[in-house]
Amino acid sequence: MNIVVCIKQVPDTTEVKINPETNTLIREGVESIINPFDTYAIEEGIRIKEKLNGEVTALSMGPPQAEESLRQAVALGADKGVLLTDRNFAGSDTWATAYTLARGIKKLKDVDLVICGKQAIDGDTAQVGPGIAEFMGIPCITYVRKIEEIDENKMRVHRMMEGGYHIIDVPLPALITVVKEINEPRMPSLRGKMNARKAEIEKWTAADIACEVNNIGQMGSPTWVDKIFAPPRREKGVIFKGEPAESAGKLIEALKEKKIV
Amino acid sequence: MYRKLTEKRIKSLKSITGDNNVLTETADIEKYSTDESPDLKYMPETVLTPENHRQVLEIARYAVSEKFALTPRGGGTSLTGSPLPVSGGAVISFEKMNNILDIDTSSRMAVLQPGVITGDLDRQAAKYGLFYPVNPASLDSCTLGGNAATAAGGANTVRYGTTRNYLSGIKAVDGNAAEWQAGGKIVKNSTDQQLLQLVAGSEGTLSIFTSLVFRLTERPEKNAWIIAPFRDTAKVPVAAAKIFSLSLNPTMVELMDRLTLDCCRKYTGEKIEFDEYSHLLIRLDSGGHLSSSAFQDILFTAGQACLQAGAEDVLIAESAAEQEKIWKIRSSIHDAIKETCGSIFEEDVTVPVGQVSQLLTEARNISESTGYETAVYGHLGDGNIHVNFTGRNAPAKKIKEMKKSIFEAALKLGGKLSGEHGIGLTKKDYFCRYVDPSYVNLLRKVKKQFDPENILNPGKIF
What we know:
Distance between the termini of chain B: 17 Å
Strand order of the largest sheet of chain B: 15-12-14-13-17-18-16
Number of helices of chain A: 6
CATH superfamily of chain A: HUPs
Oligomer: heterodimer
Largest interface: A-B, 13 and 21 residues
Radius of gyration of chain A: 23 Å
Low-confidence stretches of chain A: none
Largest sheet of chain B: 7 strands, antiparallel
Shape of chain A: globular
Strand order of the largest sheet of chain A: 11-10-9-12-8-1-6-7-13
CATH class of chain A: Alpha Beta
Number of domains of chain A: 1
CATH topology of chain A: Rossmann fold
């Protein structure tokens, strides 16, 4: 079983800084972590490998420092890490990111299962996982909270929904995005950490994975960020207290004052 | 004999502190009648919540003139009954004297009132890149006044020492209703340091603190936990000794035996890997001078030593989330044992570090001979081991026998009755039995000087 887990390195803070010129995140100087949702994807990949044998490859697209996240994935039990890194990838939106990752997975060959976290905590779009599946032409199941059965050819998963879940049978290869209910990630072991230190993280450029130049980076991104800003705080509301007739009267007065009625 | 707090006296107390700071209703004062020690309850006649030094001084003057007992109380987390008003009178609670008055970054000192929660000092210090390292398990509910009164230790003692090492200044009122102060924002002091060390750990029997100065230190930038599970608990102190031989300067070296871990797992609901094993927990910290790679080397060295000592595996927790989880489990121990297995009693005997293995054997022997299972945990780095005899409703005679056995085991190994909980009420009889009588006589003379009328926390220690 060949499993690919896609991970993203994200800033370890909610107070991210934005470059006012490019309207993209400034990642330098901010401590980075593996996107927390992706840690569940790594754990699930390792558990399947422990059950069925095979190989788990952690894959990420990002700047050179994203290598550290891949080493952490190896420390947790991934067999290898591959970083897609190229200046031309900079500024990728979810479409271009999904395209690039799909190209990377294609180069890995004979992949049976791709696992992603449900979304990244910095962008919060939840689009990249399904996008990869679309580029690869394989089934995609989002919000997976349990893999009930899995063998080399198929699996049965529980897809979380409001107030319940779907049970879905799906042939492999397929892509799933997972929610935190699926497992509890393990802590890295000493042996894992030592493996991670020695591990050679492969680095592939756009040319290595035969990307169409027009499909990657800012140029390949149909989403253009015009401006990023914090929405203005909502003003505190007013509560009119007292007897219903009295408070209704006050409300009418206030609405008239604001020329709403 | 102490005088009762009549309505007239309560009225006088109200004139000192204001009506709001004198509690007399049962519903209001009930919570001050217990602490964390099992089966002890002493109702105060009133609870006073003064707001400043002057009010404390006035209360003491009034107590001396009217002859009623004053029992100072911090967070009420004592395990020995030390803040319980066994002679009635007034409990003085410092919940309204809970301000950090100054964090002097140039001198690395904090000036504060005694009711400040210990964890709050460190959180404030962190804003300035500083660190208050004393780390009792009740960090977020105990107070620094209480810590000073008990010379509190905690899990960081092996590297950073106890409250004694940080208490630099004090303002207090003694049992003569005289105010006194010593020390200050100074690190070195061969002028008036001695009294500070005398009243630290005196459990409120010599003076009531109204202001304290604590030294702060450099905040570590990197930290990590190493978890090493062992099938055989006896191997844990052996591995700890190996860690010490490597001069890695660990911040914590802790034992959690299998039963302790099981209680914590059930109580916190946290999943614990290798929960069928006894765990050695090692925390390592480092300042900014060490590169990430050099810090990793230290972690690897410690981890490999554990594997060589027979650990089943070694886990390394570096992320904030993993570390929070470990500390959540570690700091839940006391409540976890009490709630899941029941706790007949817990003693925190202390022995020379080299004798910890022997103490664990003795504890196991007592457990086997009495039929009460022990949950053992504690600080391998400083020899302070907590032995908790689990179960419910043991006969009083049996409890006495078991306590005697564990105390005598510790003493035989060159240890002491308590490493950090203090003597208070629950160990008073044993203290008087096992400690050199001439030492106790000297303590009595000291008490007489500070508190001739025995107004301050009577009935404790000896």
